[in-house]
Each structure stands twice: as structure tokens, then as C-alpha cells.
């Protein structure tokens, strides 16, 4: 028998959480915030039912037939996404957002960083955050663009 080459696959799982936030930057005046963020700068905030799709990538294990056990992925997502974010005011209940504007882009970065601490190294491929059906952010761990 000849050895089989490793097969790579991507595995995705989704969760939905509800949270509120206010788009407001401490670096801008109240007038500038209102101009930039419009109704999303409402002082009382507004809410979303966010859908998050997490994708991992790796070799299909020849014994288990899996890239990763979905039960493990579910538990990691519970700890990294649901526990800190579900039914929370992002700006007031999540310390990360006390200094970072709670845009969907930054929510995706927060989730990525949280999952990176839990998942086996190098397996996390992509985090998609659907703020609405029309607004989706995809983050793959890129930190900066060299200019």
C-alpha cells in the first residue's frame, strides 16, 4: 500500500448571540461621532442579533476522520463568544470595548483573539460576524497592512 497524502479541510460552526452597543469614539467630539455613526451613536445604544461563523482548518485525521471534534469547537465557542458577549452591553460589560469602538470589525477581532487562546495553535482559519443580513465582517487574523 502506498501512503495516502494528507487531506486538508475546513470545518465551520455558527452561533447567534444578542448584544447592544453604541458606536462612539472617545477620540472624536460628540458632533463628530454623530456625523460619523449617525443613529448608531444613540446615547442609549441599539441592539443586534449577531451570527458568528467560526472556521477551522487542518488535516483530516485518518483515525477519527475529523479536522476537529465539533463538541470541542462548540465548547470553545461557548467560552470565547457566548459567555462574554451574549445578552451584554458590549461597551459596558466587556472590558475590551471600554477603549475600543464596538464596531463589527472589532467584535470579529475580539472573537478571533479569544478563540486563539483556546484552540490548538494554527487551526483557526476565519471568523465571520454577521451584524445584519446585509452587513458581514470576515477576519482571518491579519493585524496590520504595511503602508
TrEMBL record:
Top-rank taxon, per record: Eukaryota
Active site: 40 (proton acceptor), 87 (charge relay system), 131 (charge relay system)
GO molecular function, one term: metal ion binding
Residues holding Zn(2+): 21, 46, 48
Cellular component GO terms, alphabetical: mitochondrion
Cofactor(s) the protein requires to work: Zn(2+)
Keyword line: Lyase, Metal-binding, Tetrahydrobiopterin biosynthesis, Zinc
Record PROSITE patterns: PTPS_1, PTPS_2
Gene Ontology process terms (BP): tetrahydrobiopterin biosynthetic process
Cofactor-binding details, from the entry: Binds 1 zinc ion per subunit.
SUPFAM superfamilies: Tetrahydrobiopterin biosynthesis enzymes-like
Pathway where it operates: Cofactor biosynthesis; tetrahydrobiopterin biosynthesis; tetrahydrobiopterin from 7,8-dihydroneopterin triphosphate: step 1/3
Role according to the record: Involved in the biosynthesis of tetrahydrobiopterin, an essential cofactor of aromatic amino acid hydroxylases. Catalyzes the transformation of 7,8-dihydroneopterin triphosphate into 6-pyruvoyl tetrahydropterin.
Family: Belongs to the PTPS family.
InterPro entries (alphabetical): 6-PTP_synth/QueD (IPR007115), 6-PTP_synth/QueD_sf (IPR038418), PTPS_Cys_AS (IPR022470), PTPS_His_AS (IPR022469)
Pfam families the UniProt entry points to: PTPS
Enzyme Commission numbers on file: 4.2.3.12
Protein name: 6-pyruvoyl tetrahydrobiopterin synthase
Gene: Pts
Amino acid at each position: 500500500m502506498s501512503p495516502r497524502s494528507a487531506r486538508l479541510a475546513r470545518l465551520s460552526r455558527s452561533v447567534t448571540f444578542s448584544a447592544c452597543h453604541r458606536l462612539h469614539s472617545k477620540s472624536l467630539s460628540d458632533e463628530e461621532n454623530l456625523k460619523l455613526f449617525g443613529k448608531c451613536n444613540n446615547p442609549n445604544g441599539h441592539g443586534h442579533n449577531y451570527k458568528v461563523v467560526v472556521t477551522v482548518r487542518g488535516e483530516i485525521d485518518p483515525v477519527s476522520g475529523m479536522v476537529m471534534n465539533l463538541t470541542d469547537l462548540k465548547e470553545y465557542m461557548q467560552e470565547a463568544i457566548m459567555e462574554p458577549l451574549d445578552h451584554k452591553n458590549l461597551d459596558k460589560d466587556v472590558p475590551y470595548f471600554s477603549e475600543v469602538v464596538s464596531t463589527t470589525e472589532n467584535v470579529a477581532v475580539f472573537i478571533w483573539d479569544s478563540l486563539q487562546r483556546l484552540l490548538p495553535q494554527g487551526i483557526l482559519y476565519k471568523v465571520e460576524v454577521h451584524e445584519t443580513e446585509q452587513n458581514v465582517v470576515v477576519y482571518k487574523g491579519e493585524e496590520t497592512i504595511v503602508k
